[in-house]
Amino acid sequence: MQKIKEYVATHQQRFLDELFELLRYPSVSADPKYKDDVSRTAAFVAQKLRDAGADKVEVCPTAGHPIVYGEKIIDPDRPTVLVYGHYDVQPPDPLELWETPPFEPTVRDGKIFARGACDDKGQFYMHIKALELMEATGTLACNIKFMIEGEEEVGSDHLGEFVKANTERLAADIVLISDTAMISLDTPSLETGLRGLSYLEVEVTGPNRDLHSGVYGGAVANPATVLAKLIASLHDADNRITIPGFYDDVVALTDAERKALNEAPFDEAEYKKDLGIDALWGEKGYTTIERTGIRPTLEVNGIWGGYIGEGAKTVLPSKAHAKISMRLVPTQDSHAITELFVKHFERIAPDYVKVKVTPHHGGEPAVTPTDSKAYRAAEKAIETAFGKKPIPTRGGGSIPIVSLFEKVLGLKTVLMGFGLDSDNLHSPNEKYDIANYLKGIETIPLFHKYFAALD
Questions:
Q1: Structure confidence by residue, pLDDT tens digits, 242-254
Q2: What digits encode the pLDDT tens for the residues 36-68?
Q3: From 37, 71, 88, 379, the catalytic residue
Q4: Residue 88: active-site member
Q5: How far apart are CA 344 and CA 204, in angstroms?
Q6: Is 455 a catalytic residue?
Q7: Largest CB tally within 10 Å, which of 108, 219, 247, 405?
Q8: Domains of the chain: residue spans and CATH
Q9: How many angstroms separate the CA atoms of 55 and 412, rounded?
């Protein structure tokens, strides 16, 4: 451990400078105008893998954005770890809410503020620096393969095709991902599950053009009003989702499992203070920890229609739109849930409007075993680095590819993330603590050491 700490301390500033360079690339996968920037980001990642000591590094084209592959094989008889991450990021909008430019990393109070700082550039880059460290100190104990993609934020559609076409190249013993959070540096944790996702867009159309609200108001249905009512009807008074059949495949945890989950520290007052809210909201009968980890949800991610510019324009809009995401839990299926939503939304729409539902992307929920050698290696690595045994938790987010790794490659996943829930993922002023970044670089080599040694 001392050798690791010394190497990180010696190269700390360079590790930060390299991450800042990576963060300056606006690798927004959802917006076609950033396509060249995404490609340049992939080239940067590939070069840094080579610099760290990886062999056979390749930028692999797909029908979408490229995948960066690299490997370091030291002995075919040793265990092999497949490291997954993504270099693409969420759109930075709304730009006016950023205190500093989203693609100009800025350090404030020991935290790096930039789009992608935590999700996932800062986290996957720890693994590249950990490889460098192990190569430089002669402590690499496992074979390592890297697969860093550029489409995670838009559903990883082409990564699935890549995985199916490269099963032999991707053969490994475990998948290691740092794209999740821990409770804190003082209370480390390991996520043991992720929720699935169904993401879609709805459109409500009334008249064939925008209308004067004085001339036509009261005689023609307003799509914006209708959409608001339709969305409101998707939850009942207990905040349960009203789509018939939605909960049919939800696996309920036992009382003992729920009790263990709620042993994780949670300060409700601090939680509300951090978010600037006076009260919490959610499905009746469940705690906040349960609502964000083991229960499915339905959320409106965006809603618009009519005139939204400066000043006033008295218009009755022709159309109204919303983007909606549903987080899913075992054993819900994203395709089945999407179909349930589409049928329900079309059924409840009144006859004075037309509705259109467009599915975008999704992914399946996943649960990782806590009795495997890989989990025990991660647990021991964190305990060694942090001085505390990590608490098992359930993550509220989604990594669509995890279930595919198991289905196609037959591989389980270890979710060893170093971010924090308060890191403003997908929001303005995303951040990543420098201490977490450096602690991750210290911890990852220990995982490889213990994974190679444990029976």
A1: 999 999 999 999 9
A2: 999 999 999 999 999 999 999 999 999 999 999
A3: 88
A4: yes
A5: 14
A6: no
A7: 405
A8: 2-194+366-453 (3.40.630.10), 196-250+296-363 (3.30.70.360)
A9: 24
